[in-house]
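dumping these here so i dont lose them again. two proteins, back to back, each one seq then structure tokens. dont judge the mess
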Amino acid sequence: MEAPQHFTLKQVAESIRRTITERYSRTYWVMAEMHKLNATRKGHCYPELVQKEEDSIVVEMRGMIWKQQFERIQQKFHEVVKEPLHDGMELLFHVKITYHPLYNIGLEIIDIDPNYTLGALQKERQQTFERLNREGILNANQQREMTLLPKRLAVISQADSKGYSDFITLLNGHPKHYHFNTFLFEATLQGDAAILSIQNQLKRIEQIKQHFDAVVIIRGGGGEIGMHCYNNYELAKAIATFPLPVLTGIGHSTNLTVCEMIAFRNGITPSDMAYFLLSILEDLDAPLDKLLLKLPQQIRRIFQDINNQFTQLTRSFQQKVQTALSEEKNDFFNTVKDFEFQTKHQIVYSNQKLSELRNQIRSSFGYLFETQKNKQQNLVHLLQIHSKTVLNSSIQKINAGEEVMLRALPRKIQQESAKLQQAELHLKLLDPITVLHRGYAIVTNEKGVLSVKNQAQNGENLKIVTEAQELKAKITSS
């Protein structure tokens, strides 16, 4: 039997390389997601290209962009899209299929079409817009009622964002010092991560919506790619159905996103949104400014009228006061004379009454004193008689008790003596010496008297105590 032909691994790899080179000699345009860019220090890139179905990766291939090609592609992409290439983008690649013995099959990326990326974003925008329209919520937030003075604002932004800084500075820097209460809810405002981040903050605000008049989403400038999250259906729906008016100022001037279109109001920049809020207060303040211009003249006229009325009233009041004083002075003199007469008469009458009362008190006090004295003497006599009676009765009871105790004492002593004799006899019977007289012996070991708990062991020395003598023994078997 002829031996089979053998090949080295290098020969097999070379054969595969030639086959792929011959079979895929031309270039192709391929749609894929750039999962990771994987740029190196030398300037080359080795992106991971994937295709997803229902959020699961079904195909994955290795790509490569050489340094010179990457610099050209990056510059072109930035000029059109206004943002650099980054992870997670859906792109249209111009590729050449290659094979390397060490890195296997891969795609050498020659170019990337930036217009395809913009087109994909526009398609998502249109689909979201149509879906919101079908569900009847496209204008839901725009139909909310804005409070007359929207001063309590829930702001969704980043603390270090220039747009947020400009917004707060403008609100607080108005010459009339309008006061706004702002509370920052920090969120990511660009890229895919912004979708869930903004939604989560909207949910937080909804739980305490009674504390706010409106929600403001503000962001600094950026390219169109960074804005694609604002065309997402879920985020747009959350804004459209939010129970408070939602204002947007997300920093760009072309191609409004769906979220901006369906918001209660949108501004090109955070500053525009600040000017809008300030204009509401300025419009309410304008009539007051006009009134303030007319107010000094009105006040002067009113003061003049009041001054004239006051002068007339003062003159009339002085005349009436003088007339009233004269009348009151006459009445006062008459009253004083009458009072003097009444007082003298009342003093004479009161002195007579006091003399009569003094005599009555003296008579009554003497009679009352004698009566109380007789009562006290009677009580002392009764107390003496009662005390003697109680004392005699107590002496008789003590004497009777003493006789009873004297009669009972000998019998009690005899009974207690008999009990003591009986106890003494009982103790003698329990005395170990008495037990030994009866022929018993006490057997002990090192632990004490032998018992159920202390049993003798083989080879152990014992001490036996009888009435007549003390013996020692040793156990040889048990």
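---- next one ----
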Amino acid sequence: MRKAALHNLGCKVNAYETEAMQQLLEKAGYEIVNFHEVADVYVINTCSVTNIADRKSRQMLHRAKAKNPQAVVVAAGCYVQAVGEQLLEDAAVDLIIGNNKKGELPELLERYFAEQNKHSEAVIEIAKTKEYEALHIERIAEHTRAFIKVQDGCNQFCTYCIIPYTRGRVRSRELADTVQEAKRLAKAGYQELVLTGIHLSSYGVDFEEGKKETLLSLIEALHEIPEIRRIRLGSLEPRIVTEEFASKLASLPKLCPHFHLSLQSGCNATLRRMNRRYTAEEYLETCERLRRVYSNPAITTDVIVGFPQESEEEFEETYAFLKKVHFYEMHVFKYSRRQGTRAAEMPNQVEESVKSRRSDRLLELEREMSLAYRQSFAGQEKSILLEDETEIDGVRYRVGFTEEYVRAAVPWQPEQKNTCVRGRLSRMLNEETWFLEENSKDETKKI
């Protein structure tokens, strides 16, 4: 029996695809081992969102070959799609598999072993495909919530982003296929679904007339699965949150009031250079819509500092806007020049020292806003779905998250995982974690 090890780089979509490839290899008879062990096959699902991601992808490929020079090293995913045949010149790589070919991994490996053919490739012109690659999972490594990929590709072409070139145009998963997988996961004991995609808001726009589905109709279909307790959404574009969309979401009790709305900048001039297609004022209205239909929804975002030509005045405008919106969490990124994008060729690139200074200011603001949001739940009754255990000040706890994704803990007991408990958030154990005084327990199927 051959041994295979897999390593994932990048986003939740990549993580889903890596898990799907692992299960395909298991069905094909491979023994799955830890990536740090000696294996016959190493599969690295690469990322190319930044130049740093490219470098990490190359490093992991070479690390795999160093572990076992006789192993077959497979490079898969976005970095492969970005550089293509250049990887054939790398002695550390034996087989390259682009996006929309990951489902063929066992067959491609079988052909490689049969032919003993070095430097094989399976890369398509991703920009021309209209087919959604049908990958499936029956279980995932995260034992409480299940991530389900429902969409691939992006049509937005933000000036800083390489993803439309590595993932292609929007392609959506059939609603019925998504529901079937969700039902399998629900019967296996998973109670929380997280919908993910490269550009989740575009779900369904590629369907033919007569087969039209939307992200909302997909959520409504998943909401009908009895065993599913919660549904979360991946990153959304603010334009999708119309009055009707927000109201319908609020009418679905399983839909968690936890929204990641991609922002990138609070300055309209910067947004235009980014090709983000909305204004700061429109973004703020989106947040206000959600706050009108939910009492205290969690709103999180991404922000890029040091985008080309970002002046001190533009940064201060963004800083003031972030304070005004008052996010629960912010992911702050220093702009990374990505070869192949329009932003990489823009004049007046910002110095790294300036990016670092601006990033530090936003991270401090993020800490203040995040703590304030958590503290706003003092004394409230909340339900948490128990997950992992932790130790805080020498005391052992089981931790979980509220619907808003606020972390809370109860005293540790055996066999608690995947149990939903309800109680009062009485005191904070640290800046990130509430103590929940339990008043009820709803035992559910253990995974």
